[in-house]
Protein 1
Amino acid sequence: MNLLEGFVTLGKALQNSGVDLVTLIDNLGEDIHIPEPAHNNALQFMTAHDFIYGNEQDGYTASPLLVSIATNLTRDESRRLNAPDVQLWLEDLTRAVSQLRQAETEGHQLDIKKYGQQVRILVTQMSNGLNEEARELRYNLDTNFGQASSLKQKIIENKYLINKLTVLVEKLVAVNRDTLHKLAGDDLKLRTLFLNKLLNTVDRCRLIMADAIPQLERSLWSFRKQSEQAKRVFALERYFRTGGSLEYEPCHTELTESAFNHETSLGVTDTAHAPLDFDGRVGEILASIVTDMKARRDAEDQPPQKQKSIQVTLINEDPTQEARDIGGSEIDEIVDQFVYLALTSETISCIDFWCTRAAALLPSEIFLHYAYNVLSSDFPEVAITLDTAKTEPWSGNIRVYDFKTGTPQ
Amino acid sequence: MNMKHQTLDLLRSGVFICANSHPDAFCFLVDEVNQQWINQAFEPFRRRLAHTEGGGSYYLTFMDVNAPEARESIRKNFEDYRDELDPMVSFLTLLAQSNEKIGVLTTGQQFSLSTLLGPIEQAPIHVERLDRLVSRGLFKTSRTGTADRLQSVLGTMVKLGFLHKPGRDNLVYTVTGKMDHFHQCMRFIMDNEQVPIDESEEEQQEMSL
């Protein structure tokens, strides 16, 4: 079926099932059984194309699309937002509820039906609108925004979504339990209607928003573009996330004084520091980060010099000069690092340090000799434990393989 | 701006809050209720309050260190400490070497310029090391004279947040909580840096003094 045929069939279906559709609109929120439909084919067509939901056994109910059409047909202004303007909507709802009460008091059945229907339409309209806006927001965030190819485009997309969010947040704040309970009073039917059709939707939208906003916000950090409007939205989102319910509307002062509405809680970029939890799982992750680090700059700059042939060494030779001759002036800085570690760590092995920091510059024996001399002469407070072995079983000479500072474990 | 927001501001900007550098904010953070409040405010950003060993200072860290964004930031943090702040290690060693009373600077330590200057000026080898420190890299300066150079180095450390100097004319410096963080991270980095050792290197590990 092409589109033209589709519209023609739709026209006929609308014409043939008009009475049944009005019944569904009149009884919004309920599953309506239509025992003898005027035209079975028309209802089937409407069901197949999601104008109405349900089936013969369970009953039928109007879809959001049908409610939208009904709303548009019963008012002059056809341009509308997904969800209606919240203040106007609240005024309309208050008026309709008040007229319904009046009709109930006076016992005017026709008016009761008329205003009851008005209330149901308004509620469904807002509920569908909120759902639609939340869905659209999620969709925009998941697709268009991520696909924006340039920074400029991303900023435009971002601003657009913030505008959408602002509208949605205002609605979510205004359409709250407190307001609706006050409106419904003791009327259980109205309370049930508000709860089932609206407040559940509001809660659902709140979750969608809470999920979407951090994503949007993170993007904003990278753009460094934060408007007052964005801040307000984010403040509310934080309020919701940390347990704020929609049972009342937080006043401006409350939000201003809360942790959630302070501009400094925005823009947290890379100013956080590494935690010092070096044990357990966090420690393992931090260790893996260290191993992922790029090579030390000096290690990158310095080609290995292991090919140097060094004739080592007499105990009386000046180890400082020898180390500098071979390793260059930077060997002093490396020895400084070793001394620094010796002063700040419980224990450190000189040969381990040499492996990571000085192996490319000079042989271990020269480094050990130099480092040992510096520590023993200038830092007598640092305890040094030598790792030694006899050169030969019968010899009196010993070799020093390593030394550790502090108290070895 | 009230204390809550002031503290949020400090943490957000990467400051280490300790009793000497930010006494009011530090007192505020000692209270567990306020800690919860701060954590609640930073929770949507996946950040949390942390403190250095012994609770000497508070700072902002990541809730999930394994998140890609956190890993990247921590890696940079570690690399900065290891590479950019490398000369600071030499400076700290110089101070410890020249003045036994000073030792390795730790959080809360206070000293004046003259306390450091005297022992350095007394030994040419220390002056020479200071000259070498300020000739390039982090502490590079065109100033001449040992006192000016030392003051320049300390000024850099104030800018980096390792030292706190209450006023322009005040010549007393206080070591901030960031120094403890630096020490602990440096030790951790050194302990976990892995350099593959091939056989020829292993052979070189034998020595005689």
Protein 2
Amino acid sequence: MDDIEKIELLRTPDYKRKLIQCIHCGLCLQACPTYAIFSTEMDAPRGRIALIRAAAEGKIGVEAFQGSFSRHIQLCLACRSCETACPSGVKYGELIETARIVVEQNRSISLAERFLRWMGTHELMLHPRALKGLARLLWFYEKIGLQTVVRSIDLLPKPIKAMETILPPIDLDFIETGKVYPAMNKKRGQVLFFIGCIQEAFLAPINRATVRVLQRNGYDVFIPAGQTCCGAAHLHLGDVATAQAVARQNIDVFTKQADEYDAIINNAGGCGASLKEYPHLLIDDPDYKESAVQFSKKVKDISEFLAEKMSQPPRGALNLRVVYSDSCHLRHAQKVSRQPRELLKMIPGLQLMEAQMPERCCGSAGVYNIAQVDTANEILDAKMADLQASRADIIATANTGCTMQLLAGVRRSGSPQRVMHLVEILDLSYRAEKEVIQ
Amino acid sequence: MNENAERKAMSKPSPIRQLNDLSRTLRPGQVISDAVELLTYRTDAALDHGDPDGVILAQSDEDVLRVIAWACANHTAIIARGAGTGLSGGAVPENGGVLLGFARMNKITELDREGRNVTAEVGVVNQNLDEYVKKFGLYFPPDPASGRSSTIGGNVAENAGGPHCFKYGVTTNYITGMDIVSAEGNLIRLGGRALDYPEYDFISLVTGSEGTLAVILRVMFRLLRNPPAVKTMMAAFDTVEEAGNAVSAIISRGLIPATMEFMDQKMMGIIEDYAHAGYPVQAGAALIIEVDGYAESLTHQMDEIKETLKEYTKWEVRIAASAEEREKIWFGRKSAVGAMARLSPGYLLLDGTVPRSKLASTLTAITRVCEEKQLQVAYVFHAGDGNLHPFILIADPEDEALLKRVVETGAQIMKICVDEGGSITGEHGIGTGKRPFMHLMYNDDEIRAMLDVKEVFDPQEILNPGKVFHPRNLGIRSENNIDKKINLVPASIAEAARSVRGLAAQKKPLYIEGRGTKGIYGRNGTEGLSTRSLNGVIDYALPDLYITVGAGTSIAELQAVLAADAMWTPAGSPWPDATIGGMLATNFNAPLRMKYGSLRDNLLAVMVVLPDGRLVRFGKPVVKNVAGYDLPKLFVGSYGTLGLITEVTLKITPLPRKRVSLVLPCDDLTAGLESGKGLLQKCLTASALLLCDGTGLVDTPLALVYTLEGLTEDIDAEISQVDQALQDMGINRKPTILDGISGSELWEKWILQGLAATSVEEPASLFRIGLPPAKLGRFFDGVRLEAGSRPPCVDIANGLIYMLGKVDYRTMQVQAKQLGGYGIFAAGERPAGDAWGYVPESISFMKKLKNRWDPHNLFNPGVFIV
């Protein structure tokens, strides 16, 4: 079995201890989005842990690493909904993340996939300027009507089509890095803002709304230059080295003046979880171990921060029904689920609806909706059905991937609902208030 | 375990090739045969494991029929699996075979709101069913801790319990029907949506049989009205003993909380760490006590419990202030199993039951054993029903010596439970782990009787082979000494068994009777064997809420003994002389089921002489016992064709504090049934809802009788709901309130007077029709009652219609059958020839079982359908 590369990662005493923590009670099953589709053990957390355990014990051959073993590990969304359901405290996220690293070392990857990944995770995500360049191109693609043509002839190869499908309407009004956006009203403090890579390039209005809402609540918002992608996508694809490199870069950029700031704000559940988990990622790096801990302590999701520090409750009435669709990494990894709802409930006139399964993943899951198109679509369809049944006018999100996926979902299902980040809804309420005043 | 090697040698070659043949007839993705994927199907939630040869995920009835036919042809073991959350290894393919997974058959197929019945496929998740019916104001009480994942199929196969069983009973008490596939590959419906079908109660056999008798496809459950309010309190105690005594004290006050869950200090600490439920971790023990009913009565109930607790603890009780707080308390409790893993990577969890007065002494004994063996133990348990859950921690699951010590300790604990009069398993099942301990519960004759059942249902041993019973026991039958002394009125159980053996040796037919009250046998002067001398109380355990009496004890004698302690057993007969044995054998009871369950639900144990003379005892005097097949219920409604009931253990319960009947005048059947249907939706504390002869009650031909029993506050609240419902239906008449009178009494009087009043040309017979309750109206639309005949008495809640005198029974039977019911003669004269007009779908199994135990058809020949 030693022909399996990096298998030793599954055999460390720490990892082994985390594996046997699972007593296969099965209470995770109903929490798992893939189990909901397939009803099979190997596509449920308990079964995946059994598979990883078998691999650690040398019972999985190299051919299974090219085949069924890898397939089932990759079918996991890593939404970590099972962690919330697990009474035994199994750290499933850590288990699956390491297993993926081993899978990535051993499975055969097509040239095309290699190219796409390299383009995406190295040439684009790590280079904001290139990413914004692409955004400009795509903006043009949308504006001249080419998108409509492409979508109607439907000739793109599957992975490209998957990416095209989740392309949101692009707005090119980017935020300036290295700049301070000053507090409005009485100044209450100052925060650093982590803008994210895709979020800024493709969903710039959310970042602008975030800045405005923070200003409105009396915060100077500083956008440090030199910040980069959080590294979640790299880790997701098993590329630990790059994930660690970007973590170090972000820590360097943000901790330079972190002492003077109240928090490092982000508005994407997936990125936030990744930032908060830097200490785990850099646990073996003596130079960064400490600063990673200091850094992660300051990281706050926008709703987590606002629910605590809100000084100017939104007063503009929005007569809308809103359903909040939890971001998995915000809810299950960061354990933030109460705050977004509390914030939305503050808005006068807004009626907060609940979906049947608000905690269920939408199928975005990092690059899942590109890598596992069919399963992601099944998950999305179930999600859309649930969200539509809530009778809400607006679907509120809290993460980049979710926003793009749900935008695609609305289109796919023909739903009349609008998708907005919850901070955009808050911003809308503030603006409505202003208009009333004027 | 250690018989594995032996079994392995006997097992057949791998059926992978044949599996591929089968997979061609199914859809893609329904068959799993990849060796890596199969690794995920090696275990359930217990410690044992085994490698399946394949997994088939059924999606339809046809799939299952095809798979079973295939398994028959290939002699392949089929192990049904729901969510794999079982705690006894029931779904573990210890010797290979094919797992038949039901997770995809997960639809709730029918909800009958009026008749309060739901049909669910076996893959439906327990919690989903619960939440679904709650939307309609209905309640499905079984709530195993694994309910958020476990499936209905698994719950039925294990006869699962849960915290609410103390008040509401276990899964089997709610099943009215099920569709099964037999080991021979036939689709059979057992029971249905009506009650008390004239057939052997195979539902009770299949329920809790751990997948060894049949494969279940879907199940029909009766539902209750969801209690409109619930209150939950946490009571803390210094010691385990104090908590145990408090439980007994609450029960002895005549209070029946919905739950009484116990946790010791260690367990609370473990759970609190995970669930942050606010448990009193400083205390030595705690109880979660929940009461339900009308909001008006809860405060009073809580106060009374608090008052009682004062004598047993100095701790303040904490009452959950919000639904959220209550959910947290329960979420913590239901996470106990998983939360253990935070403390220790392995554990052995046992689930023995003891009569509840033995809880404290049992705990002391278990703790001592664990101390001797230097093992750590933590407890949670359902204190109300004496169901213990000791967790023995396994610090290192790879330490063989430690594991051996743990298993030995487990065995000792099971023995302690049986020695205290309890069972080795209350709700998890025997599966693989407890199999070696079945002999603690049953002697060879009893185990053989169970194996007879297994052989009747699954002669080829295809269904979950090897589970529950040790395979070595198969196929051996006991020899009996034959005695010539025959006494037709045996004075002792031993004498009864001797007499039966004597008669069997002479191949003489034998008619069984109690005191001859129902007189339905028409046995042409042949003398019967009477149980009338097998009478009197054998064991009466007031604090443990059971009584054991001879089968010949009359219902009046029994209730008189109990009434002295303000107790009773929920049963009634028009004839005070009716014997308990006779009531059970004919399954004939007063209309009490809605609140108290039926006779079978209140039967804990029986001692029976089988037709070949084997004297066997099944059941235990505890409300939860899932060791082996649930044979006591099989004798209920079997009309003495399977055995002679000699001794009976029944649940007892405090007499209701108050009992009143609302009586509403009704002009005709249609209007009465319509009003009844509306009122049925209000029944919570009600025990009966009857439409009966109005003579002497009201000045209309018919009267609608609505009986309420229980706490005064609950009754008052329900009366005002009934008044409101009548107004909403546009009925302006006010019901009169009869204090102290119950529907049962009116029903009894009506039958007695009716049978006495019949003239020469009128047969003195009582005809009973059973229907799905929602179909009552349609039944009367389709049949014509004889002009001038006495009006029927309709038990609206249970879908039973009673008719006296001359009845056009054949037409009635046809009409009833079309609506999913039946019609039978329940007492008095029975017409010659086939008076049943009903052939159960399970008739071939009825005949096989009858033939197995009574090959010469000596017991009550011609008395029942079989």
